[in-house]
C-alpha cells in the first residue's frame, strides 16, 4: 500500500536468546532472518520471540509495528547488511498506518547497530 520496494522497507523482528535476552533484527521486508547466522554473530542461540513475549517491551507502539530504534528500548540492534547499502530506509512509526523514511547513514548514526549478514531473500 505504501508503494515502497520490499528492499527499502525495513521490518523489525524480535529475537530471544536462551538466557531470555531480547534483541532486534532489522532487515528488508522481503527477506527472512537466518536464525543460525544471527545466532553465530550474537554468540548465543536465538529464536523468534512471540508477540506475547515482547509486546510489553515497546510502550506506545502497536504490537508488530515497533520502529527499529532498539536503543530507545535498551535492546541490541542488528541490521542486515542488505539494508546498509540503501540510501534511505522506511519503517513503521510505532503503528500500522504510518511509515517514517530516514537516510540509512542517519539511522546508523542514531542507533549504532551491528551490521552483519544474517538475512536471505524470501522464495515466494
**Unreliable residue runs:** none
Q: Please give the count of helices.
A: 4
Q: What order do the SSEs take from the amino end to the carboxyl end, as H and E? A: EEEHEHEHEEHEE
The amount of beta strand, in percent, is 25-35%
Mean pLDDT: 91
Q: Can you give the helix content as a percent range?
A: 10-25%
Class based on secondary structure composition and strand pairing? alpha/beta
Q: What is the gyration radius calculated from CA atoms?
A: 13 Å
Terminal-residue CA separation: 19 Å
The major beta sheet can be summarized as: 5 strands, mixed
From the spread of the alpha carbons, the general shape counts as globular
Strand order of the largest sheet: 4-1-2-5-8
The count of β-strands is 9
Amino acid at each position: 500500500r505504501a508503494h515502497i520496494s520490499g528492499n527499502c522497507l525495513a521490518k523489525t523482528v524480535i529475537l530471544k536468546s536462551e538466557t531470555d535476552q531480547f534483541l532486534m533484527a532489522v532487515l528488508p521486508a522481503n527477506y527472512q532472518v537466518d536464525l543460525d547466522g544471527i545466532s553465530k554473530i550474537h554468540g548465543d542461540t536465538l529464536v523468534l520471540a512471540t508477540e506475547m513475549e515482547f509486546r510489553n517491551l515497546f510502550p506506545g507502539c502497536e504490537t508488530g509495528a515497533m520502529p527499529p530504534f532498539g536503543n530507545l528500548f535498551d535492546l541490541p540492534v542488528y541490521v542486515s547488511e542488505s539494508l546498509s547499502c540503501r540510501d534511505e530506509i522506511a519503517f513503521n512509526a510505532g503503528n500500522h498506518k504510518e511509515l517514517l523514511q530516514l537516510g540509512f547513514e542517519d539511522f546508523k548514526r542514531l542507533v549504532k547497530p551491528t551490521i552483519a549478514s544474517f538475512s536471505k531473500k524470501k522464495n515466494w
